[in-house]
């Protein structure tokens, strides 16, 4: 059990718990520092910070997760300490959420053409006003008995190579890093294992090259202590972090949909020193901006 979990979702995107329920759960599980990192939304942060006042031993780092495109796949970026009162940043988040809405609707249309008769109304209900994501579509399919677990919906239908997949409004990783930096955030690469699925030497080399270019744009860290990482993955990503001078971050990416590989908040996460390292980088950035 970790003391820190810097990757958690709520009902403001595709998580199942409200910010208050999530914060209460994290406090019960003995966590000391967490970050709420909803997809393309910081709308849940105010409620999370408010809920944390009942738990003085637990502190919250404001966060966000953005989906971006790189040459051959998808890359997710976490942004810590982002200034969520920045109006330009909020405009951008709103546009990304609008894009999610249209794309969700298109995927439901495609599913229906394939005979998977879920309703767009139900998907919207499941998203409860938050950023719509594929897990909401997957859950509608579970409810209607089309698949047993949400991840089965990804395997056949809505995963990147699935029959009903529709791409997102595209945003390059570099542009997203710059966007987060402009809003005062510290960008971190999420779940690098998604990027190097086969762990071929060439893929690892490509990952390092990509991280180098993102670092030049302002990237400060990489998720090392991610849910279900094996010892080999931990040592690979920890080695890369050391080599490229990136902070070792991580967390559980908790959503709560009941997928077989899902773990509870705090089941994985970085050491407390990571939080100190992030805060120190944040101070440096603020000083540089003022100087
Ligand atoms: P979206 O943001 O709509 O592109 O959906 C991405 C989200 O779907 C991720 O953040 C995960 O929560 C979830 N997801 C992605 N792949 C899978 C999978 N194979 N099984 C279950 N959930 C997945
Ligand atoms: Zn998600
Ligand atoms: Fe992600
Ligand atoms: Fe996530």
Q: What are its keywords?
A:
7-stranded mixed beta sheet, globular, binds adenosine monophosphate, binds fe (iii) ion, 10 helices, binds zinc ion, alpha/beta, 291 residues
How does the SSE layout of this entry go?
Blueprint: E1 4-8, H1 19-28, E2 33-36, H2 45-52, E3 59-70, E4 73-80, H3 87-113, H4 120-127, H5 134-143, H6 150-158, H7 173-182, E5 186-189, H8 201-217, E6 221-226, H9 231-244, E7 247-251, H10 272-290
Parallel strand pairs: 1-2, 2-3, 5-6, 6-7
Antiparallel strand pairs: 3-4, 4-5
Helix pairs in contact: 1-2, 4-5, 5-6
Low-pLDDT ranges: none
Mean pLDDT across the residues is 96
Bound molecules: adenosine monophosphate, zinc ion, fe (iii) ion
Helix content: 40-55%
Q: Give the helix/strand class.
A: alpha/beta
Q: Characterize the biggest β-sheet.
A: 7 strands, mixed
**Separation of termini?**
40 Å
Strand residue percentage: 15-25%
Q: Tally of extended strands?
A: 7
Radius of gyration in whole Å, from Cα? 18 Å
What would the principal axes of the Cα set say about the shape?
globular
Q: Could you give the order of the helices and strands? A: EHEHEEHHHHHEHEHEH
- Please work out how many helical segments DSSP would assign: 10
Going across the biggest sheet, name each strand in turn.
Answer: 1-2-3-4-5-6-7
Could you please describe the fold and organization of this structure?
By secondary structure, the chain is an alpha/beta fold. Helix content is 45%, strand content 15%. It is built from ten helices and seven strands. α8 (201-217) links the parallel β5 and β6 (221-226). The longest helix has 27 residues, at 87-113. The protein is globular and about 55 Å long. The mean pLDDT is 96. Bound molecules: adenosine monophosphate, zinc ion (ZN) and fe (iii) ion (2 copies). The site of adenosine monophosphate (AMP) has 12 residues, from α5 and α6.
């Amino acid at each position: 059990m970790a003391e820190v979990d810097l990757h958690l979702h709520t009902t403001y995107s595709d998580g199942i718990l409200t910010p208050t329920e999530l914060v209460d759960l994290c406090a019960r599980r003995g966590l000391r520092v967490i970050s709420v990192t909803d997809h393309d939304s910081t709308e849940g942060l105010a409620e999370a910070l408010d809920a944390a006042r009942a738990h003085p031993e637990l502190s919250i780092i404001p966060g966000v997760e953005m989906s971006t495109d790189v040459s051959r796949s998808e890359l997710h970026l976490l942004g810590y300490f982002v200034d969520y009162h920045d109006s330009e940043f909020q405009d951008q988040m709103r546009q990304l959420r609008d894009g999610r809405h249209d794309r969700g609707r298109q995927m439901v249309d495609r599913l229906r053409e394939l005979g998977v008769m879920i309703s767009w109304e139900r998907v919207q209900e499941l998203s409860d006003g938050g950023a719509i994501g594929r897990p909401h579509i997957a859950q509608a399919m579970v409810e209607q008995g089309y698949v047993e677990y949400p991840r089965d919906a990804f395997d056949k239908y809505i995963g990147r190579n699935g029959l009903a997949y529709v791409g997102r409004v595209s945003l390059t990783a570099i542009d997203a890093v710059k966007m987060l930096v402009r809003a005062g955030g510290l960008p971190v690469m999420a779940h690098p294992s998604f990027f190097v699925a086969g762990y071929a030497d060439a893929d690892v080399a490509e990952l390092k090259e990509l991280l180098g270019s993102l670092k030049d744009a302002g990237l400060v860290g990489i998720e090392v202590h991610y849910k279900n990482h094996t010892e080999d993955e931990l040592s690979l990503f920890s080695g890369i972090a050391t080599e490229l001078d990136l902070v070792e971050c991580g967390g559980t990416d908790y959503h709560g949909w009941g997928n077989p590989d899902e773990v509870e908040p705090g089941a994985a996460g970085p050491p407390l020193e990571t939080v100190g390292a992030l805060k120190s980088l944040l101070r440096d950035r603020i000083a540089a901006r003022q100087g």
